[in-house]
Amino acid sequence: QEYRMYNTYDVHFYASFALIMLWPKLALSVQYDIDWKDLNLKFVLQVYRDFHLTQDSQYLLDMWPICQDLLDRGSAAFDKLLWNGKYYNYDSSGRELSNSVMSDQCAGHWFLRASGLEEEAYQAFPKEKIRCALKSVFDLNVMSFSEGHMGAVNGMRPEGVPDHSSVQSDEVWIGVVYGLAATMIHEGMLEEGMRTAEGCYRTVWERLGMAFQTPEAYCEKNIYRSLAYMRPLSVWAMQLALNTSQRDNSVLAKTVDID
């Protein structure tokens, strides 16, 4: 099953790490073609990350007042409506499945960390809650799914069984998993991040034999869809997280030596 569209913006959100790290001018040209007033926050996050990595973005000054207002209002609402003490609920409806554990629940924080923001990121998402949420995702979506050998399932119930309420909830989206792994690495959870990504690698390359035809998604029964999908290019976000972590550790080591 092939996917009939390419570079849809919600998927570009994940794949764009490959462009901004390898072909930055091409990545910026995509942003220049977008009318940001018609889009969601994924555009705002991408532009700030691109500015951080290239120091080249004409949108930033125009967007900043709007972004600051969204941050102030959104972070308070996000915490009040979704935090349940262990992770962020899937939604605030209060329905039976609203407390499902979404593997991608820290995506906004991921982009803030990829943009070189640490203290600012924790103003939006408190550090202890991010670490707690990531641990919940690792324990449930990763380790409680297929014995921890297939990456992170999109939706998991808090009792440790996959959320089968929709076609997408019980799938593994490889690009989402690599983004999740990058978030863990940014947060110092290197072992958990690599274990999470390893499940996708071994499933796609070793068990399914897809090599360079990495699909968008697969499920526990090895059914897959949309070959050669672009979202898994988010694997470059893991490289960025590793580079950042190594640089931070190097600076810390030099500081300790000087002291």
Automatic annotation (TrEMBL):
Chain ranges of the Glycosyl-hydrolase family 116 catalytic region domain: 1-34, 69-238
Entries under Pfam families matching the protein: DUF608
Alphabetic keyword roster: Membrane, Transmembrane, Transmembrane helix
InterPro entries: 6-hairpin_glycosidase_sf (IPR008928), GH116_catalytic (IPR006775), Non-lysos_glucosylceramidase (IPR052566)
Taxonomy, superkingdom: Eukaryota
Transmembrane segments: 12-32
Protein name stated in the entry: Glycosyl-hydrolase family 116 catalytic region domain-containing protein
Taxonomic source organism: Xenoophorus captivus
